[in-house]
Design a protein that fits this description.
By secondary structure, the chain is mostly helical. Helices cover about 60% and strands about 10% of the residues.
């Protein structure tokens, strides 16, 4: 726990809160006699703490953006993928308490488990040190200019942009196909290819088929721009 506290840059007055934040329901179910609680309630609270801190951050940072844009950026910033990346930065998977079945099934690398644990840790810090401590942690690991730039990149719809570009000339047809996948079920990487009139013009990969297609469209746009 001390190693994790160093990465969090926060020392708990009540270490039991951090222990609970790291306890998956599978572990708690296997140790019911010990009176352990899973991190599900903390995850529920952490979701709200994260939402508030992020909303305040965006409200101050973007005084001219309308509500709709702020909502979309917030959703992208606090999405499962973003929280999964935070878990990786903190090496949170190594500290999780999992049941035997979840451990055997690769739970330490499962995106949903890690994302939920991050929110639970945010809640634990909030309960232990207040909103200022939670806000400081969230800003340090999640809310920075580089991450917001990454979010803006994710929000771009390269498939639509590519479709609009090729439609400028009549008789053009785009098709997408999956060309491969690798990794275990809980952490698959998909590869996609986009073809223009049957000819490959771009390929890419991602953690979902949709993400892979977007990556392929982005590569195709760059290739077509280079040709023109």
């Amino acid at each position: 726990m001390r190693e994790l506290e160093k990465k969090l840059n926060y020392t708990f007055r009540n270490p039991a809160l951090l222990e609970e934040a790291l306890s998956h329901s599978s572990y708690a179910n296997e140790h019911r006699g010990a009176g352990l609680h899973s991190n599900e309630r903390l995850e529920f609270l952490g979701d709200s703490v994260l939402g508030f801190v992020t909303a305040e951050f965006l409200f101050v940072r973007h005084p001219d953006l309308p509500e709709g844009d702020l909502t979309r950026i917030r959703a992208a910033l606090v999405c499962e993928q973003s929280l999964y990346e935070v878990a990786g930065k903190l090496d949170l998977g190594r500290h999780l308490k999992l049941g035997r079945g979840e451990e055997a099934g690769g739970g330490r690398e499962r995106m949903s488990i890690l994302a939920d644990a991050v929110e639970a840790v945010f809640a634990a810090v909030y309960l232990d040190g207040g909103i200022a401590a939670a806000s400081q942690l969230i800003h340090r690991v999640l809310l920075d200019a580089e991450r917001e730039a990454d979010v803006e990149e994710r929000r771009k719809d390269y498939k639509t942009a590519l479709q609009e570009q090729v439609q400028r000339k009549a008789g053009q047809e785009l098709t997408y196909c999956m060309i491969g996948e690798q990794g275990p079920d809980h952490a698959k990487i998909f590869s996609a290819e986009v073809r223009l009139n049957g000819v490959p013009v771009g390929s890419g990969s991602g953690r979902s088929k949709k993400e892979a297609e977007q990556a392929a469209a982005k590569a195709a746009l760059a290739a077509l721009k280079k040709e023109s």
